[in-house]
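Incident review: delayed structure delivery

Summary: a single-chain prediction request sat in the queue longer than the usual turnaround. Root cause was a stuck worker, restarted by the on-call engineer. No data loss occurred. The affected request and its eventual output are reproduced below so the record is complete for anyone auditing the incident later.

Affected input:
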Amino acid sequence: MRYCRLCVQPDTRPSIQFDDEGVCPACRFAAQRFEIDWEARKRELLDIIAWGRAHGHFGYDCIIGVSGGKDSTRQAMYVREELGAKPLLVSCTYPPEQITHRGVHNISNLIELGFDTICVGPSPQVWKRLMRYGFLRHGNWCKSTELALYTSAPKIAIAYHIPLVFLGENPAITLGDFGVRSLTADANRMKHGNTLAGADPSQYFVDGLTRKDLLLYSYPTDEEMERAQLRIRYLGYFWPDFSKFDNASYAIANGLHLREEPFANCGSVSKVQSVDEDFVAVNQMMKHLKLGFGMTTDDVCEEIRYGRMSRTEAAELVKRYDGKCSPELIQRFSDYIEISVEQFWEVAESFRNRDIWRQRADNEWELADAIQ
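Output delivered after worker restart:
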């Protein structure tokens, strides 16, 4: 595999295509931000808010999907304080066994900042069964949970006749992931992207589960969205400084709690990434086995693009922490989905990409083309 000439992103994700100069799409987009007319985008955003105010009901101008983390805290405050709009927050909550104490604090903190919030809680038993299925079948426990997370806001929008919905970042721009099919603020088609894969819950009719068990995993159809005049928009598209660092700085000043464990425990050099639960580190380790990069790569690439870190420093952090996940966390995850640690590693190794990994004489694995 090869790496972006400007950052440390490898070319192993099919939806990310390097240009002829060896530069990834996210780096190209980052360079173009200096050419964007941000005032024009602000006017566009104000027009969107005006439309939401005209079409909303019960006094709400829009809906914002939130977790209580850095991005959603800043989004909610921005919409209320800077745009003068009244949002209804929608939070799809993790089961009590999975959410962390910091996650409970952060969503509580956001609500206590003065927002009306609807919390959507899928059955913990169904949630766990689908996580287990996703891990065993796809090596990705997040497949079903992300469907529930992304489904909650548009379903509430339709139910309450509040057609304007805000999400955070557009992955096509921030990650260069063209699988989401949009380079604008329009997120209406995001359910057809890589992660949600058409948002069809029938793929989870397993282990005796039926459609009636998966109401909260059933994304609105295109016809339902059109009938409700749903407009889903990426709020980050309108900000010149939509980044982990900037969003976190704002959220911390408004009460956000951070991660405290060592970087090597969770494979991330960010204290503010995915703070509501810990199993994300397991999934990022699986991504590392499949694609050769994990959360540390995502962390440092953004820092490079914003000029806050050199490529050399980033490469050292990637070599040190990418794909790391503590044995204690693997044990907790295995206990949660009710498999043994031995079975966990059997599944994990079955998804290791032999095209990019090689086994040394001491039987340890290493990337054939590690970042230099």
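Verification: The mean pLDDT is 93.
Action items: add queue-age alerting; document worker restart procedure.
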